[in-house]
């Protein structure tokens, strides 16, 4: 598991730092990518991350690494997002579970969306309320981490051989 985490998440982010992505920019991209990766609507995070990266000129590889690393957590958080959204809108609790949702998916995506429309709306409301705060908190945590990491990285060959 450690090796997978290192190979799929840490190494690509370190490569971006080595390539000159600023720690500030990388922290923002990862924070936004994590938030998008946790959106409680299956099938939209990859396209949404790409659209946000292109629209705001953020680093697309960093955002995609971050959002893809959240896929397991995305599934785990769907029901809590639904419950929070129901609470926020004072809607009655619906019988919702991941297994029932996945079983519905076998009947077709459109059928699933129609049946789970209210749950999707409630979960999205909760995500929209929490995502900005999550982005800010994660950005503030990651920025100094990436700054320290960038300082600790060995100088690139081009920087070492360029005249001063």
Overview of the structural elements:
- By secondary structure, this protein is mainly α.
- The protein has one domain (2-153).
- It is 77% helix and 0% strand.
- It has helices spanning 2-18, 23-37, 45-55, 60-68, 71-89, 98-105, 109-115, 117-152, 157-161.
- The chain is elongated, with a radius of gyration of 19 Å.
- The chain starts with a helix and ends with a helix.
Name the helicity range: over 70%
SSE ordering? HHHHHHHHH
How many structural domains are formed by the residues?
1
Distance between the termini: 43 Å
Overall pLDDT, averaged? 90
> Per DSSP, what share of the residues sits in E-state strands of 2 or more residues?
under 5%
Counting helices, strands and paired strands, the structural category is mainly alpha
How many whole angstroms does the radius of gyration measure? Answer: 19 Å
Q: Provide the low-confidence segments as ranges.
A: 157-164
Compute the number of strand runs. 0
Major sheet details: none
Number of helical segments with 4 or more residues: 9
| Global morphology | elongated
